[in-house]
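Why predict the complex rather than its parts? Because the way molecules touch one another can change local conformation, and only a joint prediction can capture that. The input here totals 408 residues.
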Amino acid sequence: MAMTEPEILAGLGEIVDEVAGVPADQVTPEKSFVDDLDIDSLSMVEIAVAAQDKFGVEIPDDQLKNLKTVQDVVNYVRTAEVSA
Amino acid sequence: MLMRLAEGAAGARILAFGGYQPARVLTNDELATTIDTSDEWIRSRVGIASRRIAGPDESLPDMATAAGGKAVAASGLSPADIDLVIVATCTPEAPIPNTAATVASRLGIAAPGAFDLNAACAGFCYALAAASDAVRAGSARNVLVIGAEKLSQWVDWTDRSTAIIFADGAGAAVVGPVTDPDEGAGIGPVVWGSDGGMADKIAIKDRDSFIVQEGQAVFRWATTALHPVAKLACERAGVDPAELAAFVPHQANLRIIEAIARKIGAPQARVADDIVTAGNTSSASIPLALSKMIERGEIGSGAAVLLLGFGAGICYAGQVITVP
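Output of the joint prediction:
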């Protein structure tokens, strides 16, 4: 069953906390991973891998580079879930 | 006709380690004077503070001989006791002659079997498995296994994605038979594999090319595909990861090392971090790191240690060993 947007956001917050040590409550939709949350490209890969485990949605490297904000990832997961 | 087969040993073990690093230290700050990078950036992305680079007249066989000589001396054997020499390297001076025969000759090892093996950064674990199997099959009694690399000659020193990572060095181990029947095998079953479909992710494409690496793709592969290999190597050796005294993976990138270590579940294991001052020395990194940990007394005799090599090919291999 597809997850709701708040559910994806909460799950993503847990992942970012675990991977990069950024508190989950700071992981809000408008935040940029690089500019606001200080997350580098390798941590983004770790986030993508963890997101795959959690949401069952694969985010390949060539897609990952387009996902700049938290909202971008939430949208990507929602779209992928619908099409799957 | 019934052919007679060689009689081997019941098990193989490591008798001693040895390591060698060139004297020249290349710091991040020094690299930052010629390429667009910084100490902070390198430390946070790959975990390296400084690396060692071979001198202009220092060859691959020079480094391999230095490490191999130390391991033979520490093993208590004489060169005459060694009957097989394996050098794992992906940076030989030339396609022929191989490195192993030259090194054996320089160490005074007379007429041993001698071959080079290329499994890139997994090379030492492959060579250790080959040595263990040779001792068990009776093809050799005592084997000198060396991992040696001179990656500096294949690095484009203007390419900041690779110049910050790769380095030079050598590490060695002497492998011999288990002689005490009460003593278990010192080298556990190898778990090895490859994926040629990822061949272009880390490559030196021809003799005029430098080493290239798709860092992000390699990082993703290493942090997702390797912990099951590591766990299987423990399982096949009958060792619970919780019992491991140390985890010594290829020193590729500190963040890869830490990610794999977290996923293996070995809370007691000291995790090798030699990359901080040695850089990525490919096939040399595991024996180099291990020899230093043993020298510093960080892991005691008889302790179980998990080795895990991985890199270009893609090739990977892991096994559990006990410390000599």
